[in-house]
Design a protein that fits this description.
alpha/beta; Aspartate Aminotransferase, domain 1; Aspartate Aminotransferase, domain 2; four-stranded mixed β-sheet; three-stranded parallel β-sheet; 15 strands; binds ligand T4K
């Protein structure tokens, strides 16, 4: 590392934060409002299995997202598993990106299929349609791209590949709550989209998620699969999971929905600030705000070129931690490196060079609505200082 230990002590002493700055924080709704909502539920004793607040949240999300049929789930992972299950992928292969959270690949595994990893682009963190097409074989059952960091995939290119081969597309839209392209919800792309409402996401129900379906028939299947495979008539028609969201989570979500526009606006202006403060730092690359897109500021990744910056991503992360800034390497390593998938033919790192390069360099900086502009400026200042004094 080029930065001297004495210099590090100096930066920590001068610019370190007194309290930890986490990669993200949920915006907590007013507690009194939460109690008011729970007061509606308490006397009923109806606290799960599709209660009144659950119903209200599903309806309000459908309107807010402008995205058809919403099925709430207890988390994004069970929603992904059920979405894939509805497409009968068991015993086959599902093509996905290796540059994502483990849940994407694990959902394929738990739906009874094998993940096949296709590389992302040179200039895009998302899976490349041409690389998807090159992976298609007789066992391919579906395509599972991810809108990483809320950045839209090349949905047109992916749909063209899917149409040529008669394959369904499920989008892992865990990061893409509220994202619109040309004013249209990104959740309307493909056959199904799956969102996460985890505490670390811009919109949260503490734990939670949803499947957005195009048709009411597909929605009915999701409703059954999230409830043990029970039909409306109370018979088991499929091996479903317990993927239900409860009333306490739905109440949290209803209140989050009241402030989500403000949350997203704040995140986007913090991202603009990061970009303008970091744009001239050699060896630090930010993703541009995608044009024509209502992006949601889900994450703020930067990519560290060690040769130009003067230290590696891990070294930068370590110094930031000493300054009480807890940036995270979302997503390193790539999924193809996990022992459970590394033996798959498509997991060979030699065929996934773009994903490996993005992943080796990525560092997600703190990003959440309550983050102060001064904190963004100070974090960018530490990074600039390290480059100049390294
Ligand atoms: N697909 C993709 C592409 C995903 O990224 C994810 C989840 C999924 C699918 C699956 O969706 P879910 O089944 O989770 O709904 C987190 C989340 O647990 C996970 O939801 C998320 N992606 C993943 C990227 O990140 P960790 O292990 O990094 O979180 P943790 O506990 O280290 O928290 C990070 C920071 O957030 C903490 O340092 C402080 C802050 N935090 C966290 C929690 C849980 C809070 O301030 N409050 C909290 O309650 O996994």
């Amino acid at each position: 590392m080029a930065v001297l230990k004495a210099n590090i002590r100096e930066i920590v002493a001068e610019h370190g934060f007194a309290a930890p700055v986490h990669v993200t924080r949920p915006t907590m709704p007013p507690l009194a409002d939460y109690f008011d909502l729970l007061a509606e539920v308490w006397p009923t004793g109806s606290i799960s299995n599709g209660g009144a607040l659950h119903q209200r949240l599903e309806e309000r999300l459908g309107e807010y997202l402008g995205a058809g049929h919403v099925s709430l789930f207890g988390n994004g992972t069970s929603a992904l598993i059920a979405a894939l299950q509805s497409l009968d992928v068991a015993g086959g292969e599902v093509i996905t990106t290796p540059f994502t959270f483990a849940a994407t690949a694990h959902a394929i595994h738990f739906s009874g299929a094998t993940p096949v990893f296709a590389d992302v682009g040179v200039d895009s963190v998302n899976v490349d349609p041409d690389r998807i097409e090159a992976c298609i074989g007789p066992k391919t059952k579906a395509i599972l791209p991810v809108h990483l960091y809320g950045m839209p995939c090349d949905t047109g290119g992916i749909q063209a590949v899917a149409d040529r081969h008669g394959l369904p597309v499920v989008y892992d839209a865990a990061h893409a709550f509220g994202v619109r392209v040309g004013g249209r919800s990104i959740l309307l792309e493909g056959d199904l989209s799956v969102i996460s409402f985890h505490a670390t996401k811009p919109f949260s129900t503490v734990e939670g998620g949803a499947v957005v379906s195009r048709t009411s028939a597909a929605h009915d299947v999701m409703e059954s699969l999230k409830n043990f495979g029970l039909s409306d008539g109370g018979e088991i028609v499929a091996p479903g999971v317990n993927g239900k969201m409860n009333e306490l989570e739905a109440a949290f979500g209803l209140l989050q929905l009241d402030s989500i526009d403000e949350e997203i606006d704040l995140r986007r202006s913090l991202a603009m600030m990061y970009r303008s403060e970091l744009e001239d730092v050699p060896g630090i690359a930010c993703l541009p705000e995608p044009s024509g897109v209502d992006w949601n500021g889900a994450y703020f990744p930067v990519f560290v070129d060690a040769d130009r910056f003067g230290m590696t991503r891990d070294e930068l992360q370590g110094i930031l931690e000493r300054c009480n800034v807890f940036a995270r390497s979302y997503f390193y390593p790539t999924c193809n490196r996990f022992p459970c998938y590394a033996q798959e033919p498509s997991a060979n790192p030699g065929g996934l060079v773009n994903a490996e390069r993005w992943s080796a360099r990525v560092l997600c900086l703190p990003m959440y609505g309550m983050l102060e502009y001064g904190a963004v400026s100070a974090i960018a200042g530490i990074i600039r200082w390290l480059q100049t004094n390294g």
